[in-house]
Amino acid sequence: MKFLLTSGGISNKTIEAELKMLIGKDFKGLNMLFCTTASNYEGGDMNDWLIDDLEKLKNLGFKIDICDINGISKENFLPRFEWADVFYFEGGNTQWLRSCIRNSGLEEHLLKLLKTRIWIGASAGSCVLCPTVCNSCQDLFDEYIEGFPSDGLGLVDFQFVPHLNNEYFPKINFENLEKTSKNLQEIDGKKIYIVDDNGAVSVDNKNINIISEGKWFEI
User: For the stretch 84-120, what's the b/e string if a residue is b when 16 or more beta carbons lie within 10 angstroms of its beta carbon?
Assistant: First the structure.
């Protein structure tokens, strides 16, 4: 399976080049399912990021179908996922996205779909792939929802933390993450990759690479 876990989307040429390598062909004319579920929970300024990401992806040449899996039937959205060459899961609330993937019925089809498709995540759309989505590091985002899932999809064997040093997330800094990551590692023992909005983690089956024009660190 192939994944591109980004913090701020396709934010620079280095990440763009890595995506092209993962796909193995030009973007022009490729079908993309753009999932807005996580963003729709947040609203507000999140819509500005979503619009910016859509414009970037359209300019790269993708043919885009915008879909929210919450509130519509699997019979409606599953053919749209099957149509797509690439999935793009936008940012927002990670627990909400995790819950919707489970409750909508999408989860039971993901392994089959991802045999021939690539998942691009932005922020929450990346974090949801990890073993857990509610932990000592993720809680620094102050997005915890009581009673919602804490487990992730577990499609990657590491934890991902986006938005390092982003002014909108003042708790996401080296000092806080170094401290809270100790608790997380004791719980699940997984490697942790932390990137700013100019970085990403590229996964090509068992090959994992950090792609960055900014700051990042791993624990």
Answer: bbbbbbbbbbbbbbbbbbeebebeeebeebeeebbbb
Q: Which two tokens stand for residue 121?
A: 């995540």
Pair 33, 87: CB distance under 8 Å: yes
Q: Count CB neighbours of 78 within 10 A.
A: 16
pLDDT, residue 138, reads: 93
- pLDDT score recorded for residue 44: 76
What pLDDT was estimated at residue 183?
87
pLDDT score, position 47:
80
Sheet strand arrangement including 118-122: 63-67, 31-35, 86-89, 118-122, 2-6, 199-204, 207-212
* Amino acid symbol at 43: G
Amino acid at 86: V
